[in-house]
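Student: Send me a single protein entry containing the residue sequence and its fold in token form, directly below this note:

Tutor:
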Amino acid sequence: MPLLSLYAATNAVLVVLYGLLPAEMNRSWIFLLVTLGAMPAIAVALRRAPAGARQAWWLLLASMTLYNIGNVMWLWLVLADGRTTGDGSAAEFFLTGGSVLVLGSALIVVVQRGKRDIGGIIDSVISALALTGILWDTLLLPALSDQGATTGREAAVFVNVLVMAGTLGALLRISFAGSDALASVRLLTLAVGIALFGNVAGALAVDPATGARADWTNITYLAAYAALGCAALHPSVAAVTRPGEAPVDNLSTGRLAFLGTMMALSPLVGGGRVIFGLPTDGVLIAISSAALIPLVMIRIARLSSARRRAERALHRMATSDPLTGLPNRAACVDHLTEALASDPTGLAVLFCDLDGFKPVNDRLGHAAGDDLLVAVADHLRRDLRDGDLVSRFGGDEFVIITRGDQAVDVIADRIRTLAAHPLTAAGTEVRIGVSVGIAHAHPDDTTDGILTRADLAMYEAKKAKTIGALSLSVAA
């Protein structure tokens, strides 16, 4: 990574040089060198990023364009008026626009990289927003009040810090969650973190006499630009938009307690400050809380949905045959028990056993045997009526539960068709027979009783031992 090393070393020298040179000197050229130098670095990222996944880097390139326009205007102010910052001038408009595009780029990375970890990202954003509320109440608001800042200025600082903190929280999550964390993402996270620190420092470190931001805060922005360029030049930039790992996301008591604490943190701190007579901005605290509540509700809804999906998956595993997808023996027994308990009238059980399955399995292999079982299952469940059940009872045995003599005849014809035509297993046509035992329910029948009669009838039918044919036997 010689290009990255050269870029990082050059920018480190420029940042140190800016800090060492006296403030009276014209150091705006250092800013231009750093911001202009980030543009070719981002161009390299655009070339390395996969086609269709370059939106984040296009936004970064646009942001650097705005930054450089703002910095050129600032340079003009320095030369013409002797100013040290572009705050309050037209240059600030372009610098703010650049910051917005950087955040937009970071959010694109979060969405693309973290699409498999939405829950974890929401948790991180909730934490960041809650902690920002405390930062605002305990540090930023008192400082801005002492400075006599207007309501518009307070609102601008609050929204800027809130959005940057939320973005940083999401970036931290995708930077360190999982085993496939990327250096490029971490450098982007570092850039946003440094920029957030610079914004907070810029709001706090203000000359009370002139209202000008402290000159040393510019160093933080230089470092942020440099980190952004390093993120663009790192070889891992090509994988920045690749979805990360999907971690386990459980609805635990600890997780719920954490979400509740984060939601209550800002109002509690704000209320405590009111009790002690300290300055508190109720409107902006309310805005912060209003942003948190829907996030917490979405998070709880996602966790609840994930739990329901897990429960349904476990139920399917417990009641379904993994090969054919048919209900398994346990599900068949439960269905039959419920049917007998509700109304045994007209209920019939067809116990089916494949004749000639073992020779196919021995000759062509177990994979062919699996193919054959799947083909039989697909044939048996075709055009099934509501209320009827086809299950794989075990091995090459299938049990069908239906009602009415006509339904039994229809299913028997379907099985007869199955036995009369060859099936494909592992690319080879094979023929099998089917032995079927039929048992009609008695008024006082039990589940074991009717299954046993159907099983015995099936063995009576199997005595014919005709491969490629249907053998039927009806139990008394």
In short: The mean pLDDT is 81. DSSP finds 15 helices and seven strands in the chain.
